[in-house]
Design brief:
With 133 residues, this protein is an all-alpha fold. The chain has helices at residues 9-25, 30-55, 60-86, 92-123.
Length: 133
Amino acid sequence: MPAGLEGLRIYQMAEALADAVWQEVVGWDPFSRDTLGRQLVTSADSVGGNIAEGYGRYHYRDNRQFQYCARGSLFETRHWLRRARQRQLLSQARFEELVACVEELAPQLNAYIRMLGRRSRNAGRKVQVPDEP
């Protein structure tokens, strides 16, 4: 198992979700891909991007703030998935698979945010040094 950021389960899950979304959207017709698809890919990619950016911060409090942004992007991703299903860009089965990924990641991300909050309270202003990748 990789160390550091790549070893974080939530980061691995976020990457898998983003890659699955990309694989779906890349095959859509140009109008759908350029409108709804662009929003969906951006929000899905933003989940992992915010996890990574927060991980690279030196204070737990800063890290936690980025994890809140990641959670917001995760909920935005669910919104765009619902729009894609409503507009018949996703089959019901594929929609359920992708939403299941979102639903599995959400509590994991919440647990990570809680852990960072506990560390922040325990460490005061102690500097967080991430593991070397």
